[in-house]
Amino acid sequence: MHPLAIKIIFGYLLAMNLITFFLYGWDKYKAKHDYFRIPEKILLLFAYLGGAYGAAVGMQIWHHKTRKWKFRIAIPISVVLLTIVIGLFLHRVLVLSG
Description:
By secondary structure, this protein is mainly alpha-helical. It has one domain (3-96). The chain contains 3 helices and no strands. It has helices spanning 3-32, 40-62, 69-96. The longest helix is centred in the N-terminal third of the chain and has 30 residues, at 3-32. The termini are close together.
């Protein structure tokens, strides 16, 4: 795999996790101040589009969505799935191409 493609993929993952982390913080801020909220499906979507680690850390740091069963189940699953995908990707890059 081309080195630029690897950088793009990891850049995407870094960006998605940072965005997702701050989305959870922003939604927590909005919840505390009675502002219009970010829909739960958007928060979960960002987790499943590569921001799973950001979602998990954001939940803990911001103490946000930690009591909702949907998030207590879906976010750990997204972390496991993302870890598997990254592991398979690294296996392909490091073992199969080298």
